[in-house]
Amino acid sequence: MQGYTVGAPPELLRVFRVLSLITAIANAGGNVLLLLFHRPIFALLGVPPPIDVPSFAFVSGFSFTIGVLAFLIFRATQVSTDLLVTGIVAKSIYSLFTFYFYTIGELHWLYRFFGIWDGVFALIFFFFLIYLVSPDLNVLNAGAILPGAERARGRSALLLYYSLTGNGQVAMQHVKEGLLRKGYAVDEKVVEAEEPLFRFPLSWRRFWRITFRAVFRRPAAIKPLGIPADHAYDLIVVECQTWFIGMAAPMEAVFEEPANRAIFRGRDVATVHVCRGLWRRTQAMTIRWLNRCDAHVVGARAYSNPGWEPARLFSLFIFLGTARECYPRWLCGWFLQRQRLSEDKLARLVRFGEALGERPCPGEPATLTGEVSG
Ligand SMILES: Cc1cc2nc3c(=O)[nH]c(=O)nc-3n(C[C@H](O)[C@H](O)[C@H](O)COP(=O)(O)O)c2cc1C
Question: Does domain 137-305+340-368 have CATH number 3.40.1390.30?
Answer without folding.
Answer: no
